[in-house]
Each structure stands twice: as structure tokens, then as C-alpha cells.
């Protein structure tokens, strides 16, 4: 007989799949990585999406479509994550180079039909209601002074576009709004969601084993037989492995859980708990600020795994954008007041050297 799947704490996993670009348009409410954002509210976009470290613009990382069935105002709901590509802004356990937004709509709204859209292959919907940056797809707040038809979020992106392509077509009867400027955006993938399969028996075995090993190690410490973890020849190999494993139990638990489905890049568990990669830099309740729009507490919603880095096509040098866990916290009430795109909170936990 197959083992029963545990329903409590069921986690949904995100995997990346190549997809035709037309499937990742706003009208199809996608979850996706890279490319330009598929905005939900098509008019009231964030004015500026800025890195707190260098004060330059962030680019789109990913978005997760996460409606809440029992809230009318959350019939459509998407979380957007942006980041700064400058590796100098990536510091250990620092999240100021990331920005995220929550946007939600009722079923009856001014942008989308009441019923699900019909899938029309290779058809591009021109649904956006405001100007977008030609380079990154964020809100375009300024335009090319010559042609007046191409918009940008910043002077930096205007310069990049001019050197890349716009100079050749400016003032001609051509638009480059859909052209991709090489080296700015991330490769685009669809995020496909599936349930994590983990049995109750397996969960119980893991918990029991961890408790037994901890009790055994504590007993050895009390008897003075555990020695130290660094260079003590009196510790046999098995005890050494046990001590290191206990010291790094978060890392061991993380790798064991993820290795069952190694291609996962995202874990969704709204109201649950993150799967931390280290015992270092785990937030307390006071570290997670309340929602600035309604005052309610924020709760964990999903986490982005370091496996996602393998798909970003970033610089593979020692100094590069990196993370262990990106834990996303959102308003527990998913409140509807305030701006259309409400800022939420991200906690970044890096992989410490002792866990490798």
C-alpha cells in the first residue's frame, strides 16, 4: 500500500520550464522567471524600483501568481520580485538589493475579462495602460527626446538602448518596444507549480532520528567524551560526522528535503515556515515588520532557492549575485488599501562557510 501523503504543511514546489512568450503575457496570469514583468494592474505601476545600496534601478527576477480563494479582492493576486544585478550590492545576509510587490484584483476589474481568457497562440495582447521602459519593462517615466515614442525608467537604460539598437531606428516608422536589449534581462522561463510529495512516515522518521542523535550527542558531551569539533584525534569518525551533522542540521535538512526533487527553484507555503539552509541569520518575529498599509503582521508565503541561480545566466565569478534562501513575507490579511502595488518584505539568508 502506498504511504499516505501528509496534508498538514503541504508545500507547493516551483519548477522552471521553457515556454512560448505569448503564454507568459499578463492576460494569462503567469508565474514566471526573467524577461519583462507581466504586470497585473496595467495602469498603476510602481514609479521607481530602486536598489537601496547603489540607488540604481532593479530588474525583474520573478513573479508568482497566488490568488486567495476566500477573499474577493484577491481573485487575481501576484507577487513580483526585483533585484539589482550589480554584484557589489550583494552582501552577506543583506536584502536591500531586492524589492518586492504584491498586487491583487477582484474578478470584475477594468483590465481583464470576467471569464478565463481563450488561449490564442502567438497573439500579442497590447493591454498595458501606461508607458513602459523599453529595456526592462518597468514603468517608463521619461521618453527619447528625439522620437518621443520610446520610454525609459532611467537615464542608464536610455543610454543602454541607444547604444544597442535605438540609435539605428530612432525617428523611423519602427518601434522597438518588444526588442530585447542583450545583457540586461534574465532568460525567461515559466514557473510550473506541483505539490511536494512527502509521506507522514518519512516525516516522523526524520524527526525521530534527529531527536535521537541530538540526545546521544548531548549525553556524550555530559560525559566529556565528545571532545571538540576541530582537530581532536580522540573523536572517532562516526562521532565527528555526528557532531558536524548536528552543527549543520539546518543545512542537512535543507539538502535532504530538496534533493528529493532537485529541480525545484521555489517553495510555496503561505502561512507555513521557510526551509532554512543555515542556523545563522534566522529572523525572529520582531525582525519581520508589520504591513505598513494595514498594520497587521506579515507571514511567510514562499521562498526562492539557490537552485534558481543556475538559470539566471549571471557572471559566474566569485563576486556575483548570490543567496541561500530568499524568504518572502506578505501581509497576513492581504489587505486591499493603499497603492495597487504594495511593497512587501524579503529576508535573505546566505550560505555560511561552516555549512559547506
TrEMBL record:
PROSITE patterns: ZF_MYND_2. Residues 133-170 form the MYND-type domain. It comes from the Eukaryota. It holds the Pfam family PDCD2_C. One of its GO terms (cellular component) is cytoplasm. Keywords: Metal-binding, Zinc, Zinc-finger. GO terms for molecular function: zinc ion binding. Signal peptide: none annotated. InterPro entries: PDCD2_C, Znf_MYND. PANTHER family: PCDC2 PROGRAMMED CELL DEATH PROTEIN 2 -RELATED, PROGRAMMED CELL DEATH PROTEIN 2. This is MYND-type domain-containing protein.
Amino acid at each position: 500500500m502506498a504511504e499516505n501523503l501528509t496534508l498538514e504543511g503541504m508545500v507547493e514546489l516551483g519548477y522552471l520550464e521553457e515556454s512560448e512568450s505569448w503564454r507568459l503575457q499578463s492576460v494569462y496570469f503567469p508565474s514566471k522567471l526573467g524577461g519583462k514583468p507581466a504586470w497585473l494592474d496595467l495602469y498603476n505601476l510602481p514609479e521607481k524600483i530602486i536598489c537601496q545600496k547603489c540607488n540604481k534601478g532593479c530588474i525583474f527576477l520573478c513573479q508568482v501568481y497566488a490568488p486567495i480563494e476566500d477573499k474577493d479582492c484577491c481573485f487575481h493576486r501576484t507577487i513580483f520580485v526585483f533585484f539589482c544585478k550589480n554584484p557589489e550590492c550583494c552582501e552577506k545576509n543583506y536584502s536591500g538589493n531586492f524589492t518586492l510587490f504584491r498586487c491583487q484584483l477582484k474578478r470584475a476589474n477594468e483590465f481583464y475579462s470576467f471569464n478565463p481568457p481563450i488561449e490564442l497562440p502567438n497573439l500579442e495582447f497590447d493591454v498595458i495602460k501606461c508607458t513602459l521602459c523599453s529595456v526592462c519593462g518597468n514603468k517608463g517615466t521619461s521618453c527619447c527626446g528625439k522620437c518621443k515614442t520610446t520610454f525609459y525608467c532611467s537615464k542608464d537604460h536610455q543610454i543602454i538602448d541607444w547604444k544597442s539598437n535605438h540609435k539605428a531606428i530612432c525617428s523611423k516608422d519602427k518601434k522597438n518596444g518588444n526588442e530585447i536589449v542583450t545583457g540586461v534581462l534574465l532568460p525567461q522561463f515559466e514557473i510550473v507549480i506541483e505539490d511536494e510529495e512527502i509521506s507522514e512516515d518519512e516525516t516522523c522518521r526524520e524527526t525521530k532520528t534527529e531527536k535521537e542523535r541530538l540526545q546521544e550527542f548531548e549525553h556524550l558531551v555530559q560525559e566529556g567524551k565528545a571532545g571538540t569539533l576541530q582537530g581532536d584525534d580522540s573523536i572517532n569518525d562516526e562521532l565527528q560526522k555526528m557532531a558536524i551533522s548536528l552543527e549543520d542540521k539546518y543545512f542537512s535538512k535543507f539538502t535532504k528535503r530538496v534533493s528529493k526533487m532537485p529541480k525545484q527553484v521555489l517553495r510555496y507555503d503561505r502561512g507555513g515556515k521557510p526551509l532554512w539552509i543555515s542556523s545563522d541569520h534566522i529572523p525572529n518575529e520582531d525582525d519581520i515588520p508589520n504591513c505598513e498599509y494595514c498594520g497587521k503582521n506579515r507571514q511567510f508565503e514562499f521562498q526562492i532557492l539557490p537552485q534558481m541561480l543556475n538559470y539566471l545566466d549571471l557572471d559566474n565569478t566569485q563576486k556575483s549575485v548570490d543567496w541561500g534562501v530568499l524568504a518572502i513575507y506578505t501581509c497576513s490579511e492581504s489587505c486591499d488599501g493603499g497603492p495597487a502595488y504594495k511593497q512587501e518584505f524579503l529576508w535573505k539568508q546566505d550560505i555560511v562557510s561552516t555549512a559547506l
